[in-house]
Amino acid sequence: MNNYLIPANSKKSQLILGFFNMVDLILFGSGVLVTLVLLLTIQSTNIGVMILILSPALITGFLVMPVPNYHNVLQFIVNVYTYLSNRKRYYWKGWCYDGEE
């Protein structure tokens, strides 16, 4: 009686493969594409150069990696930046606020 069951993973059904949205796939795809182009154009046996060549795919893969309580690392970074860049002092404007100090 009056018991409603809401599935815990209802947001996951809106994501591609349950983890990614379209922006995530475009971001990761562009990182992989840049890495492939660099791998095809730059021939090197130096480990430092190879890490630099692989860095676009590694960085974008890190950004779209799922983390607990957030969609992914990119969303966590956006939330932290938004919190740190907005003002922290909130002014009362409740139902009894008349606009005068």
Structure description:
- By secondary structure, this protein is mainly alpha-helical.
- 50% of the residues lie in helices and 0% in strands.
- It has helices spanning 22-41, 47-63, 73-85.
- α1 (22-41) packs antiparallel against α2.
- The longest helix is centred in the first third of the chain and has 20 residues, at 22-41.
- The radius of gyration is 22 Å and the shape is elongated.
Q: What is the compact description of this entry?
A:
By secondary structure, the protein is mainly α. The chain has three helices and no strands. The protein is elongated.
Relative strand content: under 5%
Sequence of secondary-structure elements: HHH
| Mean pLDDT value | 80
Total of helices:
3
The dominant shape is elongated
Task: Please count the beta strands (DSSP E, at least 2 residues each).
Answer: 0
- Sheet/helix structural class: mainly alpha
Distance between the termini: 51 Å
Helix content: 40-55%
Work out the radius of gyration.
Answer: 22 Å
What would you call the quaternary organization? single chain
What is this structure's SSE topology?
Blueprint (H helix, E strand, L loop, with lengths): L21 H20 L5 H17 L9 H13 L16
Helix pairs in contact: 1-2
Provide the descriptors you would attach to this structure in a database record.
3 helices; 50% helix; mainly alpha; 101 residues
